[in-house]
Amino acid sequence: MKTTKKEFVYLPQLVKDDHTSALHLLRIEAREKYTKIDFGYQAKDYYDNGGWVNIYKTTYLLTNDKIKLPLVNAENIPYAPDKHHFETTVDYLFFSLYFPPLPAGTDSIDFIESDEPGKDWFKFYDIDLGLRKGILPGKLI
Amino acid sequence: MSLNTEPILRYRIINACIRNKQKPYPSMQDLIDACNEKLGHEFTVSTIQKDIKDMKGNDEYDRLNYKAPIKYSKSNDGYYYTDPDYSIDDIPLNDDEIDSLYAIKDLLQSFSGSRMSESFNHLVEKLNTYVVEKYNNKGKNKKLLIQTENAPLQRGFQYFEFFLSAIKKNTTVNFLHYSYKKKSFSCPIVHPYLLKEFKNRWYVIGYSESHKEIRTFGLDRINNPIELNRDFIQDPNFDPAFYLEDVYGVYPIKGKGKQLIEFKVSPNYTNYILAQPIHKTQKKVGFEPDGHLIFTVELIPSVELMNEFFANSRQIWVQKPNWIKDRIIKMLNESVEGNENN
Questions:
Q1: CA atoms within 13 A on the CB side of B17
Q2: How far away is chain B from the Cα of A111, in angstroms, using its nearest Cα?
Q3: How many helices (H) and strands (E) does chain B have?
Q4: Which of A89, B31, B203, B313 has its CA 20 to 30 A from that of B230?
């Protein structure tokens, strides 16, 4: 699989908002060696103490060419069944997920936590990665 | 009496010339030429003669304590040290100077830690090691003389160096941001101009492409900043020396221009306000026989100014303008209602 040589940063700022929480997909860094997605998670007052959050290892990206890129690493969020418990309804959390580099020519991706039925998984469909939407990143810090 | 920097620089140049083994016995003209060249303007014979006299320091007003053994050699037509190993770089400090050096070291140390950049801390650590090693005996049993406020480490402070570097290099940046007030996330593209400290918190100020205006972001609300390869936008109207000059704090209230704010201060608080004015525009404009004083400040109202009035609402009462007065009353009512609800 030929991966992208050019690096881009995308700022789609998508929100999955429900009565318990709000998951914000804030930034995608399409790097030569990996793809990093940054999220913000806002606890809501559905639970007295803000509830909890985690991520399943089944999480993957699906490109418009139907190539599946599995989750490689999670930063600042535990893998299920472990949980990050909030203390209050105003708590929030930034976390990042790492995937393999995007194949060259990827125009859009789906973000899918799992395909298992019966649960309200984190999912974002058809995230536009058109070149015009990408910003050139500077050097990595 | 303090020592001016330029004479000290001249003493060092003269010392270097006299110690220069490649060209011993520098003449008066050699010394003048060296000072002219290094300091970028002309010096007279009398200035250099006086410098040599000061370095010798034989009179009762000797502030330098160099005791430089400078002599003039007629046969070589130039100056030399009678002790060939002498240098003003090796001058021992007297007790008062060592005390001052320790005080400066303590002061710099109090500014280090969580409040300053890594490179500054490194420099202070080097200075600390040098002073303690060099003047160990004299420094024993030294009491801590100066202590400034040293707040706990601010969240996000680890990005201080990143923003400092971006500002120096005019680099566009992008970061994840959380607004405490709106409880919302954003990911702005920012062209950073200035790092600003207010009440032990650091803020980065710059042009936000996302907001299309100059904005202030608390470092504690920032996560994962990255550099972008994107043309840097420099707002020609932004002058770091004057931006926020008319603001108390860092978050001016939107849509509010500079205005005269009048407030009354209780008798038991007036001395505090007189001793530590809220802003340089503060003026005392009236008084009441029982000791109440009336002051004005001319400012762009800010979130921090409102909080200051609110926090001191038992001693400070805003008189004008009415909208600020109403806002403080609203804050007080909310505070009471909040207490009742809890």
A1: 25
A2: 19
A3: 10, 12
A4: B203
Query: What's the one-letter identity of residue B185?
Result: F
Residues of chain A in contact with residue B220, where contact means CB-CB under 8 angstroms, are: none
pLDDT tens per residue, range B127-164: 777 776 666 655 555 666 667 666 677 888 889 989 99
Phi first, then psi: what are they for B158, rounded to 5°? -60, -15
pLDDT, one tens digit per residue, over B224-258 is 999 999 999 999 999 988 889 999 999 999 889 99
d(CA B207, CA A11): 18
Q: Is the pLDDT of residue B13 over 80?
A: yes
Please give the angle made by the CA atoms of B34, B37 and B41, to the nearest 5 degrees: 115
Which residues fall within 8 angstroms of residue B79, CB to CB, at 6 or more apart? B17, B18, B25, B26, B27, B28, B31, B52, B70, B71, B72, B73
In 3-state terms, what secondary structure has residue B223?
strand
Encoding tokens for residue B43? 């010096």
Give the gap in angstroms from C-alpha B185 to the nearest C-alpha of chain A. Answer: 7
What is the ipTM score, two decimals? 0.90
Verdict on whether the full-model pTM lies above 0.90: no
